[in-house]
């Protein structure tokens, strides 16, 4: 195999040693950037054989200016920074890495759930302020026999449900793309969208961001939820219409929300969400552990190696036949 080039548009890792360990032995050299604009991406990637990208915009214009690209790999699960249709039209497979941080994201989801339901941050702050109450921050609901509902029933949602059952929660899920047999096998009740909203005491979101899911949590859907219900989101911020959530929390339409992802990141310092005790926000960090970081880098590089070794990548998301 002759000299090949992989362009890394942007990355937040300490180094690219895992990728280099996978790809240099089969003839790849690396060109790297920290691209913010589509133009920067186009210049860096024009003659690349493969692209690794984290957050940089891979727009239709960028894709149509590529001369040699055979694959685009997104570091992570979501691919909303890549124009999938333009890549499909150019027969370039877009590949994600959905299996690198299942444990971390599901652990973080349960951590947010427990924190918001048990009101842990509020109690900690009270103790720091010298208030010692053995039944603080009333009301706090018990979890046993409550209903956790997941929007989506993929790997992470199933891992969340597995953990939640240990707390005595009953599980329901909405996912029209998953066969009934899998729900039955895992002992989870399959429900429609309105039933998910109306039945869930804790609604955990595990959806990709698409035109169909953007703002799927809006004023109308929030009104269908129990006033005692909580929302947890570790998937994509754009699934929730922010203004509708602010109004719902302010007016007691739901009891609370715990969010690792926002429509706009980082969150504005003057956001009302930051001043609400019934809202917890973490910094899009659910995916992170030192272990998952290395897996993400290695798994992304392995998808490129598969393609250039005559195999089919494992996780093509735009219906292109490759290999």
TrEMBL record:
<dbReference type="Pfam" id="PF00389">
    <property type="entry name" value="2-Hacid_dh"/>
</dbReference>
<protein>
    <submittedName>
        <fullName>C-terminal binding protein</fullName>
    </submittedName>
</protein>
<feature type="domain" description="D-isomer specific 2-hydroxyacid dehydrogenase catalytic">
    <location>
        <begin position="30"/>
        <end position="318"/>
    </location>
</feature>
<feature type="domain" description="D-isomer specific 2-hydroxyacid dehydrogenase NAD-binding">
    <location>
        <begin position="110"/>
        <end position="286"/>
    </location>
</feature>
<dbReference type="InterPro" id="IPR006139">
    <property type="entry name" value="D-isomer_2_OHA_DH_cat_dom"/>
</dbReference>
<dbReference type="InterPro" id="IPR050418">
    <property type="entry name" value="D-iso_2-hydroxyacid_DH_PdxB"/>
</dbReference>
<keyword id="KW-0520">NAD</keyword>
<comment type="similarity">
    <text>Belongs to the D-isomer specific 2-hydroxyacid dehydrogenase family.</text>
</comment>
<dbReference type="InterPro" id="IPR006140">
    <property type="entry name" value="D-isomer_DH_NAD-bd"/>
</dbReference>
<dbReference type="InterPro" id="IPR036291">
    <property type="entry name" value="NAD(P)-bd_dom_sf"/>
</dbReference>
<keyword id="KW-0560">Oxidoreductase</keyword>
<dbReference type="Pfam" id="PF02826">
    <property type="entry name" value="2-Hacid_dh_C"/>
</dbReference>
<dbReference type="InterPro" id="IPR043322">
    <property type="entry name" value="CtBP"/>
</dbReference>
<dbReference type="InterPro" id="IPR029753">
    <property type="entry name" value="D-isomer_DH_CS"/>
</dbReference>
């Amino acid at each position: 195999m002759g000299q090949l080039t992989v362009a890394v548009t942007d990355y937040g890792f300490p180094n690219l040693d895992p990728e280099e360990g996978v790809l240099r032995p089969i003839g790849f050299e690396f060109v790297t950037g920290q691209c913010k604009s589509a133009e920067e991406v186009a210049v860096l990637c024009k003659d690349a054989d493969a692209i690794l990208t984290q957050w940089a915009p891979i727009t239709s214009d960028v894709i149509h200016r590529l001369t040699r690209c055979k694959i685009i790999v997104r570091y992570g699960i979501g691919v909303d920074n890549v124009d999938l249709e333009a890549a499909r039209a150019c027969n370039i497979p877009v590949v994600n890495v959905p299996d690198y941080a299942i444990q971390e994201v599901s652990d973080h989801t349960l951590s947010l759930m427990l924190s918001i339901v048990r009101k842990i941050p509020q109690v900690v702050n009270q103790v720091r302020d010298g208030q010692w109450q053995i039944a603080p921050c009333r009301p706090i609901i018990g979890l046993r026999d409550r209903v956790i509902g997941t929007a989506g029933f993929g790997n992470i949602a199933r891992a969340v449900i597995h953990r939640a059952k240990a707390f005595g929660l009953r599980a329901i899920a909405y996912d029209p793309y998953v066969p009934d047999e899998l729900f039955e096998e895992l002992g989870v009740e399959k429900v429609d969208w309105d039933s998910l909203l109306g039945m869930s005491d804790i609604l955990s979101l595990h959806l990709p961001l698409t035109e169909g899911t953007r703002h799927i949590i809006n004023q109308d859907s929030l009104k269908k939820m129990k006033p005692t219900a909580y929302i947890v989101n570790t998937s994509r911020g754009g699934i929730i219409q922010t203004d509708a959530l602010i109004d719902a929390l302010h007016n007691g339409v739901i009891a609370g929300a715990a969010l690792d992802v926002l429509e706009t990141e980082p969150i504005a310092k003057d956001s009302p969400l930051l001043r609400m005790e019934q809202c917890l926000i973490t910094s899009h960090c659910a995916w992170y552990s030192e272990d998952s970081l290395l897996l993400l880098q290695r798994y992304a590089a392995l998808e490129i190696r598969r393609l250039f070794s005559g195999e089919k990548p494992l996780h093509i998301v735009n219906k292109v036949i490759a290999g």
